[in-house]
Amino acid sequence: MNIVSDIQQWREIRRSLKGSVGFVPTMGHLHEGHASLCTRADAENDIVAASIFVNPTQFNQPSDFEQYQRTLEADCRLLESLGVDYVFCPSKEDMYPDGYEVQVSETKIAGELEGEFRPGHFTGMLTVVLKLLNLAQADRAYFGEKDFQQLLLVKKMAAALFLPVEIVACATVRAENGLALSSRNARLDAGQRRKAAELAQLLMSDLSDDEVKKQLELLGFRPEYVATRWGRRLGAAWLDKVRLIDNVPFVERNQKNAAVS
Ligand code: PAF
Question: pTM for this structure?
Answer without folding.
Answer: 0.95
